[in-house]
Amino acid sequence: MGAEPGTCPERIEHPRFVLRCRQEADAPRFREVIDRNLDHLRRFMPWARHEPRPLEALAAHIREARGRFMRGEEWQFGIFSPDETRALGAIGLHRGAAPGTMEIGFWLCESAVGQGIATEATRILTNLALTMLGAARVEIRCDVLNERSAAVARRLGYVLEDTRDEIHEGTPRRAQTWVRTAPT
Which of 2, 46, 125, 130 falls between 20 and 30 A from 35, CA-CA? Predict the structure, then answer.
């Protein structure tokens, strides 16, 4: 992966996709894929309920996320086709509420669902968190109705720790917390 110990690489190549820290210039591609997939995304992504927003706002969000990436605060990646001509989704590692905990969140465009991309990207970030970034615990939190996200967690050996009512990004939901404490 080519990064110094304790840092996160900005680019990770997989035979079927590329994970890359997004740049402001990626905003038009993400604007297009979000707009095309709004109904799909709104089911489980509370942020998608506020879309579409102006391209400038999306570019500012990507710029801010890139700054947090470079400062080692959180690591958001775009998921791109192998030749990087298409944006397929996004995945990120965020610091959890408890020390030593990180959370993984992800979304894919509808045309990329069911191809193992979310599973493989989550495997990569799980291993990064638990080895290079010093996490002792990685969580995937998802709505109980989001069977695809729960399936990713199960395939990677995450253990269902609890199910509870919560408010996520201002939206009430019944959520599951899946946990992994060793690389996959």
Answer: 125
Q: What is the pTM of this model?
A: 0.93
Region for residue 7 given its phi and psi (left: phi exceeds 0; alpha: psi -120 to 50; beta: otherwise) = beta
- Contact status, residue 74 vs residue 39, Cβ threshold 8 Å: no
> Which of the residues in the chain have pLDDT under 70?
1-6
C-beta of residue 18 within 8 angstroms of C-beta of residue 81:
yes
pLDDT tens sequence across 135-169: 999 999 999 999 999 999 999 999 999 999 998 77
Q: For residue 165, give the 3-state DSSP assignment.
A: strand
Spatial separation of the C-alpha atoms in residues 170 and 47, rounded to whole Å? 9
Where are the alpha helices (H) located in 22-87, listed in sequence order? Answer: 27-36, 38-42, 55-70
How far is the C-alpha of 37 from the C-alpha of 139, rounded, in Å?
26
Q: Where are the alpha helices (DSSP H) in 46-112?
A: 55-70
Token pair, residue 104, equals 């993984």
For residues 175 and 145, give the distance between their C-alpha atoms in angstroms, rounded to a whole number: 9
Cα 164 to its chain centre, rounded Å, is 21
